[in-house]
Automatic annotation (TrEMBL):
InterPro entries: DctQ, TRAP_DctQ. This is Tripartite ATP-independent periplasmic transporters DctQ component domain-containing protein. It is a multi-pass membrane protein. The chain crosses the membrane at residues 12-35, 47-66, 87-107. Keywords: Cell inner membrane, Cell membrane, Membrane, Transmembrane, Transmembrane helix, Transport. Residues 154-180 are annotated as: Disordered. It is found in: Cell inner membrane. One of its GO terms (biological process) is C4-dicarboxylate transport. The lineage of its organism: unclassified sequences, metagenomes, ecological metagenomes. The keyword Cell inner membrane applies. PANTHER family: 2,3-DIKETO-L-GULONATE TRAP TRANSPORTER SMALL PERMEASE PROTEIN YIAM (PTHR35011:SF2).
Length: 180
């Protein structure tokens, strides 16, 4: 069940990240082409910066799902469980606490923005644009919680070293170039 949920979340985040990257590239290319022909788009730089922010939040959640953020996995995984597990808990408390505060602050921003809109696109509400803050924070929290059991078990648990990302071809003995 957890693995199916994780795979579904991964596919959804990958789709969102790719869609945002494509949209960002298209907006920037359109902006450059229109400017080259003397008909600059007044909205492209604002939309591009918003897409970059959205890409950052969704990409961060995807990286969290792979446990690809900065850390000390070799050091922590090399410790005996009696030391490793308290360090894991401490790290998780800090990360989850930070993103809970971020989600709360992002939600509070909604009240502040009221009926404000984008400067260059007055029909786009700021609330829509800023919704990425609480949504991205909640996605990060979910990704951390979904992968926590693998990290808790550590290396040799049958799940692989979850902080190292996916294994690559050549990492396993079957793909080794050394003779047997």
């Amino acid at each position: 069940m957890r693995r199916r949920f994780r795979n579904g979340l991964q596919r959804a985040l990958e789709f969102a990240v790719v869609a945002l990257m494509v949209a960002l590239a298209l907006v920037v290319v359109l902006g450059v082409v229109f400017r080259r022909f003397g008909a600059a788009l007044v909205w492209y730089d604002e939309v591009a910066s918003i897409l970059l922010a959205w890409l950052t939040f969704y990409g961060a959640a995807l990286a969290a799902l792979h446990r690809a953020h900065i850390g000390f996995p070799k050091l922590v995984d090399g410790l005996p469980p009696r030391f490793r597990r308290p360090l894991i808990l401490l790290g998780e408390v800090f990360v989850l606490g930070f993103f809970m505060v971020t989600a709360w602050a992002g939600w509070r921003v909604f009240g502040i923005l009221g009926g404000e809109t984008l400067v260059s696109l007055p029909w786009v509400p700021q609330r829509l644009v800023q919704s990425v803050i609480p949504i991205g924070a909640i996605l990060f929290i979910i990704a951390e919680l979904v992968t926590l059991p693998e990290v808790w078990e550590g290396p040799g648990s049958g799940e692989g070293d979850s902080r190292e990302g996916d294994s690559k071809a050549g990492d396993s003995p079957e793909h080794s170039a050394a003779p047997v």
